[in-house]
Amino acid sequence: MRISCPICGERDRREFHYRGAALTRPAPDAGEAAWDAYLHLRDNPAGATRELWYHETGCGAWVVVTRNTLTHEMPGCELAAEAAR
Amino acid sequence: MRIAGNGLLGEARQVAFSFDGRRFTGLEGDTLASALLAGGVRLMGRSFKYHRPRGVLGAGSEEPNALVTIGRGAAREPNMRATVQEIFDGLEASSQNRWPSLGFDLLSLNDLAAPFFGAGFYYKTFMWPKSFWEKVYEPMIRRAAGLGALSGLPNPDRYERAFAFCDLLVIGAGPAGLMAALVAARSGADVILADEDSRMGGRLLAETREIGGQAGHAWAAEVLAELGAMANVRLMTRTTVVGAYDQGTYGALERVGHHRPRHSRALPLECFWRIVARRAVLAAGALERPVAFRDNDRPGIMTAGAVRAYLNRWGVSPGRAVTVFANNDDGHRTARDLVAAGVHVAGVIDSRHDAPLSDAFEVHRGARVCGASGRRGLESITIRSVAGESRVQTDCLGVSGGWNPSLHLSCHMNARPLWRRDIAAFVPAPGAVPGLEPAGACNGAFSTAACLREGAAAARAALADLGRRPAGFDLPQAEDAAYAITPLWAVPGRGRAWLDFQNDVTVKDVRQAAAENFRSVEHMKRYTTQGMATDQGKNSNVSALAVLADATGRGIAETGTTTFRPPYVPVAIAALGAGGQGKGFAPERLTTSHSASVERGAPMIEAGLWYRPGYFPAPGESGWRQSCDREVNMVRGAVGVCDVSTLGKIDIQGPDAGALLDFVYTNRFSTLKAGRVRYGLMLREDGFVMDDGTTARLGETHFLMTTTTAAAGEVMRHLQFVHQCLRPDWDVSIVSVTEQWAQFAIAGPKSRELVNGLLDTPLREGDWPFMACGPVSVLGVGARLFRISFSGEHAYELAVPARFGDSLFRMLLERAAALGGGPYGMEALNVLRIEKGHITHAEIHGRTTACDIGMAGMVSDGKDCIGKTMAGRPGLVDPGRERLVGLKPSGAARQLIAGAHLFAPGGDAVRRNAQGYITSAAFSPTLGHMIALAFLRHGPERIGETVRMVDHLRAIEAECEVVNPVFFDPEGGRVRG
Amino acid sequence: MAELIARTPCAGLLPLAVGGVDLTEESLGALTTLSPRRGQEAALSEALEAAHGMAFPAPNRTTGKAGARAIWFGRGQALLAGPEPDADLARLAALSDQSDAWAVVRLRGAGAVDVLARLVPLDLRAAAFRRGHTARSELAQMMASITRLGADDFQIMVFRSMAATLVGELKTAMEAVAARG
Asked: Is B970 within 8 Å of B915 (Cβ atoms)?
């Protein structure tokens, strides 16, 4: 598997550490349901996913990868720092 | 037998080898199979289940029968295909799955009992009694049904991995692959041409067809010479592309050492390549399939194409009176080539009534082979036609039931192949693997001209995708005959007709599966084990599903195929894990004091990737406890030195550095004064403790965080996550400086004396209070000093640039010795911290909260931090949770054990009564008895109570008193003094 | 008076020559990571140019020359190799001294690319990874910085503590490449 790091270019998957779904952290007072969903509830989609990877042995950027679990396509990869803004 | 003047080996060198102890001579370029056939050997193996005598079926990597063991001792390799194994001087090959010998195998009695051994036999028979399965049935079946055996010794061979990149990967170097590579290479693309054979050319080496007016193999040699001279081409022989993966990644197995005597340990046996290709052409060719008929597994019966390969490439005729059985025109070429080479052809049996006739040999039109005899080697076949049955004497029968395109890789990303009725075969679905274009026989194009055409077209398509202009090119002339076939899968009749030779699956087994309602092809496969052997059914899967389709009254397309999964050929685990053997398993991280510690005889303990000394044995000490006790007393009584460089050190700088620390730690750091250190506790977002450590403020916008050794990588990742994903607008930089500094803990009442001996400006009384930090000068070298303590003693940590680490450590030990001190290792460090109730990852093991470790007060009220919200969940602050306490033995039994569980005295020591567990235990030389840290329900409320410790594994019990976890100097007078 | 003695990361391990490939330890002088403060990227590059004669490198690139080089070192980070950093830079960037943190080796000779191809998952083809190009990647599970100094000439950096593993892995690969002949 190859991931196109926005900084380094296309790189082998082994340079990356996988975290999981790319989600927005709830506000401290968002309530139990929001926090439960953020921490524990995950979809298992047959199709497009958005997930966080860390280019650990590369440039050290956290990236948001868009990936299709059915077709293996990876249409997008953007810096998490920019996605979060 | 070798036919003089035939084949491509020419005047090759003679090579001596042995098979089952018998000496043979072959020619350089021979496979073991071709050399044995030349030597008149037809019997090469025994089948898996029935131990039937078997000969070679094919001439390539798909071989199901001729599996042999190569070499001896630790380096012996079982299950090598004789059709792939090249011979070399001194090669030792032996047959497998027979006892006492290949010719006389006692377990061939299984074959006589065959009526009982049909599909599902094991499932039905060995069901009861249940306890018999593991001890009786399975070992018995495994002994009887077997492949070759491993030596059981550590593998002495080296395996290698490597990465390669190209614009175009061409898989297979037959006419289509050569053409594709040539067009792409001439157009300037970076090309890798990989072929699993030792010599490139594919079927051109096995056929007598011409290309552009010259012999096919000569054309191949010319193309290869041109490609070999080009800088943008890499030719990879003996390299099987075994899998197609995401984003143009291909796995390939290269046989590096199998074909030569191995003198050098440095030469790897195999190399596993990861090839990243922007585009790929699949030109893997096609595999011929047999027709099933009674006893069609007799040694001497092989595919018609294999007969041609042995004849035309290796100059070997597999028989003296050869017959051919075919349902297509292709089989007739075998007869023509044999006649041309002067070999007697005893007849061609063609199931089609309109089969072409020949002047050179007899053609039995509309006839079928319905039986074969000759147990250890074919003697005759029985032919059935409208005229009745007749027998033909023959020692070799070439069978052609048609060709199956080698489309396996096109299915590795979940695509299903398409059925083409006109060629009675499956072909790859369009776009099956992104960027992979099939061409030639693997795409159902069987004539040489069509292969050349498709190869060139596939290369042009790839070049267009790559944005390159294809070089002008004229296709050479070649034969373009139509492929005429009338399907015939199995000849009806009594007896057993074999489909899967390696797993001994017959037509009857497949029909029985259908009759027992295993009608799905996936169910049939698992019930009969069809296609589940090491050859993965390359010769037999399509025929088996055709039989299933017939038995269930469905079409072949509707029946469908099983799933093709990587790898295409068997790959040794050692090759897949290449690079990970021995020290390659993980990098070793060594501290600057490593050499000095090893010189002192310190045994090393792994801590993450780091190696740290366990203890430093002194003369006369007989065990670790003795050394450890001495080292603890030394620290408490004088001074000890310990390398703590392995702790993670992270530079956090910038205007928002304080804000970041406030957010990742439960407590506040933005208020910390420069020149001071504070202990911090870090939570995961789910509220459990992640890590702890001290952070120093070196300047207004400069902090230095320390992490535990084990969690350094995880904390770095976490800090970057928090900054980049949650607070991207903060102006802060996070850089690991762990490796820049060699840092030593100097602990004990004489620590200041030791430090002062080295500092250019000695510390005065009252300078550097507890938790102070700052720059110092050590013998002229800029250093950092931290007044922190993990041991509970008056202690410092002194950090110097790592280049001076070795020198400083030696100097510290020398000077410590003069003060009655010395080095201490992990064992003593552990005892010292348990005496002080300091936690490590034994306590913060991922299931403990701040409340559990008595640090609820460290979660600051006035700010948000990672984990704070979830840490407030009722279940996580419940006082009834298992919380940190100290334990000391209070009864006659004095031993405390980490991992032991705690129960109320008098109650049953069973799980539902469990009240907690011990995380750390040690003998305290300071207190003279064992002490332990434990998690106990309502722990801190139960100081003074008695609990019962039970170690079920060791059957050890002890009564313990619950005490404050800080066993030694609870007021902290020593650390501040 | 007693004196602290400096020791290099690969002391006792190098040099090494196998086949046509040489492996030597490099001494680059001071190593300093530069992380520009927010919005100061251009100013830092100018200051770097003024003080040390090189611009702040773009991703996967180096600037400067032997003896004074800036090596791109990750997201928002460069490694100044050679000179002690000018004090003025600290206004514009976070500086961390890394002079002792990295083992630096140089792999040279025909076959150097083949040796690296056994350890590094990078596209090292001449057209993709030219002289002066650099990459952060991994080498046999170790975080590494790899820079091409010439056609068959590479600078490789890993954490100091892993120097022995680095040399061991390179030696094994060098032997395997040489054994193929």
From this structure: no
